[in-house]
Structure formats: C-alpha cells, structure tokens
Amino acid sequence: MSPKNHYDTLGVARDASAADIKKAYHKLVRQYHPDISTDPDADKKTSEINQAYNTLKDPAKRAEYDALLANPYAGHEQAGFDGGFGGYHYDDSRFGDGQPFGSGDFRFDDIFSAFGHAHSGRTQRPSGPVKGEDQHAELAIDIAAAYQGSERSFSLDMPTLTAQGEMTYTRKTLHVKIPKGILEGQQIRLRGQGLPGYNGGENGDLYLKIRFREDPSHYVKDRKDVWQRLNIAPWTAVLGGHIEVATPAGKLHVTIPANSKSGQNLRLKGKGIPAKEPGDLYLTIHIDLPQANSDADRAAWEQLAAHYGARG
C-alpha cells in the first residue's frame, strides 16, 4: 500500500483546484477540532491537515511536492535544507480560553495561510551559517486592545531542523503582548520565531502586522481616529443635554448641542487611539425615534404633530 500523501489527508484529487483544496481544509479542520471532536487522534489529525494545506495552498510548494510524489527519490538534498514544504501550522486548539477559531482580541482562523516560504529556490547547501527567513502574518485585534493593551498566548506547529538537517515540526506556545496605543499597520516582532537557520545560523523573526477587527459600532480612520455611532432620543437632539456614553476610551460625559441633527459629528479631542500623538474620537449622531406601540404613544405623537403642524 502506498503511503498516505497530502491529497489523501485532505480527501481531494491530485488535480483539485485551489478553491476545492481550501474548502476541504476548512471542513476537516473544524471536524477534527479537539474541542468538539471525539476522535482520540484529533490533535494529530489537525496537525496533519494543517501541514497538508500549508503545502498544497502554495502553487510553488505544490509543484515541488507533486514532483516529489512522481519521483520520491529526487530532491532529498534540497528538501533537507529548503524545508521542502516548510512554514507554520496554526493549532487553534491551544487558546488560553479554549475558544475555537478565535480568542479575545485575536482571530487566527487563517493566520498560518500567510506563513511559510521556506528558503525557496536554493539548490545546494551553503557552507557557512545562514540565518532563517523572517516570516510575516496579519493579526486582527479589537480596538479595545489598542486602548488598553493586551496579552495572549497561542500555539503553532513550528518548523525546526533536526541534527540531520531535515525539516520537522515542533509544538510551541508563543506569547504576544499588544502594547497600548498600537496603530493599524504597525508590526509586532517576535525575535527568533521565524524559520530556523542552517549550519548554526540564528532563526529568523516573526512579524505580526496589526489590523483592527471590523466592528459595527465603531471603526478607525486614518489609523488612529475612531468613529462611533451615537444614538440619542429626539428630545435630547432638540433640547440638548448631557449624557454618558460608553466608548472604547471608557465612559465619557458628552454635551449634546440643542437642535442637533442626524449625521452631525461631535469631536472628542485626544480620545482616539492613545498613540504617542493620540487620535480623536468622533461621535456621529443618529436620532433614534421611539415606536408608537400603544394608544398613549400614538396620542403623544399626534399631539406633537398637531403642535408643529400648526406652527408650519
């Protein structure tokens, strides 16, 4: 019986499209997630599924892998150094709070899809120490993490070189500290967490590029200005007043000008992302009309209509 290969692991044909491979991967990684699967080998199978996907999703790695399947005795010298099908495999079963496919400020469902291009293109071993390649990935965080700072842990199956120069994977837990005031687009550097070096060379670094998670209640503009919708009652809009508003910067007391209109913006200087030069917080007014759900409600609205109609 021929040994199981990456196509077998994902349950796809060797001529499967990239879309079919991705679809099969997402189905399997959820099926064997250790938090929900009763399979005693769920953890091992998840690792195998991740490794298979990491290889087949990359056209160059897939072509090299296909070549090795066609001629398994070719390319051993290169695969030992190049990492053949190197990269990271994310293990979403090792969150600090045990939640699948996300943890607090983080979203890691596809974090490993940005990893892994392991020394491609080299055809022979160098004689001296070579530093491992740096790796890059995007990390989504909630805006609250940028206001308060945050810290999380997650696990990856990380590529390492054996004493014989062959690439293998080792489970490792990484700790990431999100500094207060971080801006979208900035990177967090995890020293030595990139691909392994060769001939005694040091490991590369892992860079996590920050992206703010989409949120229906507020969004970030120009990297550090925060915009938030503010619902107010019609009488508050007409008469003005002082209200308390829950914002990413905490609960703030806000003055509503009389005769405010929907779409009007209130600027709170320095209440945006608390960077070295803090951004501003903009509250966009939305007048929230109460519903007439009773006779008393309708009578009140009719009285109001009569009053303003007479004035018109």
From TrEMBL:
This is DnaJ-class molecular chaperone CbpA. InterPro entries: DnaJ_C, DnaJ_domain, HSP40/DnaJ_pept-bd, J_dom_sf. One of its GO terms (cellular component) is cytoplasm. Keywords: Chaperone, Cytoplasm, DNA-binding. GO terms for molecular function: DNA binding; unfolded protein binding. It comes from Cardiobacterium hominis. Transmembrane segments: none annotated. Residues 5-69 form the J domain. GO terms for biological process: protein refolding.
